[in-house]
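Morning. Coffee machine broken again, so started the prediction first thing and wrote up yesterday's gels while waiting. Chain of 267 residues, entered below exactly as on the submission form.
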Amino acid sequence: MADLVDITDPDDPRLADYRDLRDVELRKSLEAEHGLFLAEGEKVVRRALEAGHEARSFLMAPRWLDGLADVLAGSGGTCFVMPEPLIEQVTGFHVHRGALASLHRRPLPTVEEVLAGARSVLVLEDLVDHTNVGAAFRSGAALGFDAVLLAPRCADPLYRRAVKVGMGAVFATPWTRLPDWYDALPDLSGRGFTTVALTLSADSVPIEDAVAGVDRLALVLGSEGHGLSTRWETSADRRATIPMRAGIDSLNVAAADAVACYAAARR
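Came back before lunch.
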């Protein structure tokens, strides 16, 4: 059971995991160095622990203790209890979802392990916005995708914002990073997947046509700005687009991901 510890000093060194959460660069360095990530909100904290992640500690206001009593009873570590105004001083924002947990990262699985038994896979190239990565995981999980593969430069799906936006989908969906960016799509084709790249290429066809009849699908999306790299665009088996009215050529990548996942789920 997690030990309850009341803290009244926002500068207490034991709260280092939770300090200045708005500073993205600081968090990247801290979390990589110490092998941790943060979960925010009752549902997300529960899902992280149910997925087998071990808690380092918790931080919450007194009014949230009862609702998470079963979580604390089944977990180790320490639960730091503070009034909400002091928590805001520590974190730099209002923790309106009531609870934070610092959890240990686990080693990433291999591509082979992630793809085992998968029929529909999301493949993300260089999405650098944590909100978009979280949204992609959430849409994929909701619409039946079995796994997610990330190019090396994609944003961290375990960063607090990504986890929060994805409502913990990262804990339910097998994922890993691709070790070989250049030949990633040909490798997937060699494993029996049809790679369908969402892009405005001249030979793109409507997404419904591109996924029709596909058994094992790898749906490929590119970065928020320029989209897919030329290498990934040309090495995909098929290229697809989302038909839309004249004068509008694209959607936000998170919205495009949701539409494409829906079309793929109906194939």
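The chain is about 35% helix and 20% strand. Going to sketch it on the whiteboard this afternoon.
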